[in-house]
Amino acid sequence: MSTGAFEQMPAVCRVCGRSRGWAYVLGAYGVDSLRDTVCPWCISDGSAARDFGVRFTEVIDPPSDVPTAVVTEIETRTPGFSAWQPERWLFHCGDGAAFLGAVGWEELEAYPDALGCVTTQINGWGLDHEDASALVGSLDVDGSATAYLFRCLHCSTYLAYADLE
Ligand SMILES: [Zn+2]
Ligand SMILES: [Zn+2]
Fold it and tell me: What is the pLDDT of residues 16-49, one digit of tens each?
């Protein structure tokens, strides 16, 4: 599983001016996307977000038990991920969960907690039972419906949500 946020390339980082061999390929939210031009280290130390006023993930409606500092860290120091729709960060135990990667149904089967999240989510879309099961079964990293897997940093519960093309 890879988060797909970085690729190896000889780009010079626009924040630290060094060529570190890796660049962020997803693009940030802001006036300047910094696509392919910022190194992983300048994202994690917050300097890219500070110097360019960008966010790497947009957190919409975080749970009320999550401190603002956590939301800020996710938005400004955490690489986003590539999803069909704008990525959605998941939270658990009052904190941001760790993003593990895009997964399909076969991978999800190993994480019953996460599979439960996705099943509940898809059941909420108003499909009949058969269509909902078919959709869950069609989840695939390279398909038109994909799930995104997270793990709680505190209780190790696995979480996921599904997203359609
Ligand atoms: Zn850099
Ligand atoms: Zn938890």
Answer: 999 999 999 999 999 999 999 999 999 999 999 9
Residue 100 CB coordination number (10 Å): 20
Return the ligand number nearest the Cα of 17: 1
pLDDT, position 4: 83
Q: Is 27 helix (H, G, I), strand (E, B) or coil?
A: coil
Give the Å distance between the CA of 143 and the centre of ligand 1. Answer: 33
E strand or H helix that includes residue 23: strand 22-24
* Residue-range domain boundaries for the chain: 1-82, 84-165
Q: How far is the CA of 75 from the centre of ligand 1 (A)?
A: 17
- Taking alpha carbons only, the member of 26, 32, 30 closest to residue 79 is 26
- Residue 34 alpha carbon to ligand 1 centre in Å: 11
